[in-house]
Write a structure and sequence with these properties.
The protein is α/β, with parallel strands linked by helices. The protein contains 9 helices and 7 strands; from the N terminus they run αααααββαβαβαβαββ. The strands form 2 sheets. A 5-stranded parallel beta sheet has the order 4-3-1-5-6, sandwiched between helices. β5, α9 and β6 form a beta-alpha-beta unit.
């Protein structure tokens, strides 16, 4: 009688047996319609439960966490893909032409492709949930740290050459994290308003300005500070609704009082077509001055017709 699971395994004849990722194809993953319908149904039921209760004020945090579930799952798959890619590079560096080496290389490529396909599926779920978040909360969903990359969801049906896989992997990663088009810098501060109507008028001014700039620059992408409590939030919401890419320059708090000026330099370093300026603080004023000095056109909206009672950003 066996005393342990290890002894049971030792008593089995497992010669020639190996564990590999199961082959996959596109039908192994949820289709787009199933993702949209299922998440929409879950979202509707979840937030109907919060409505008109003492927990309604916490709904935004729950909504953010719901989207973040899929973002974290995609990030884990991305990490698995990176590890498999590292293994492929190591195997390529010590290639000896043996059957064992070829088998190991083929297995790592299969693992990498499986991780990439799963990552793309979770990213599709995250983007669907992010769209629901935008409709429910009224602002663009962003992770606490890092980027919200969106890789291609196309699946590879055949095992490709290892060098081709690594090259295409690097290209897809760059495409997912690098905006394409003409940069437009958007800047402004945190404002408060005397009435709800004034806040709505201000938001309409922001969105109308962005509409006009987009008419002039159809391939634009927005560079902004990512402040979730300031006017950047309005710009981010507009960008997501219009499928415009965003490049977020968060403050480097380690720089202290110099952080805002360093961010100005980084954004102007993009050589933007326009700088859109809404009311803000002295750092924003310096951004406008430096933009004009570089002969960058400034769309100046700092003197809004809306009565702004406080500007902090």
């Amino acid at each position: 009688m066996y005393d342990s699971f290890v002894e049971q395994l030792a008593g089995l004849d497992l010669s020639g047996f190996s564990i590999k990722p199961a082959p996959y194809n596109s039908t192994d993953f949820p289709c787009g319609d199933a993702i949209e319908q299922t998440l929409a149904g879950v979202w509707s039921d979840l937030f109907a439960m919060f409505a008109d209760t003492a927990l309604e004020a916490d709904a935004e945090d729950i909504a953010w966490g719901f989207v973040n579930l899929f973002h974290r799952a995609a990030s884990r798959k991305s990490s698995q893909l990176d590890r498999a890619s590292d293994e492929i590079r190591a195997l390529l560096a010590c290639a000896d032409g043996s059957e064992v080496h070829s088998g190991n290389l083929e297995e790592q490529i299969e693992r990498a492709q499986a991780a990439e396909a799963s990552m793309a599926a979770f990213e599709q779920m995250r983007e669907t949930a992010a769209a629901l978040y935008l409709d429910e909360i009224g602002t663009s969903w962003r992770p606490m740290t890092g980027s919200r990359s969106n890789h291609s969801a196309n699946l590879t049906s055949a095992v490709v050459n290892a060098r081709d896989f690594l090259r295409s992997r690097a290209e897809r990663h760059r495409a997912a994290t690098t905006p394409e088009g003409t940069p437009i810098v958007f800047a402004g501060g945190r404002n408060s308003f005397a009435t709800t109507e004034e806040a709505k008028t201000f938001a309409a001014n922001v969105w109308g300005t962005l509409d006009k700039v987009r008419n002039q620059v159809p391939d634009m992408f927005i560079a902004h500070g990512g402040d979730s409590k300031g006017v950047d939030r309005l710009a981010a919401s507009w960008a997501e609704r219009h499928h415009v890419q965003q490049l977020v320059f968060s403050l480097d708090r380690r720089l202290g009082a110099r952080a805002g000026f360093k961010r100005n330099d980084q954004m102007l370093g993009l050589d933007p077509r326009y700088v859109i300026a809404f009311p803000g603080n002295g750092v924003l004023e310096r951004l406008v001055i430096e933009a004009k000095a570089r002969r960058i056109t400034v769309v100046d909206r700092r003197r809004s017709t809306t009565n702004i009672s406080k500007s902090e950003g």
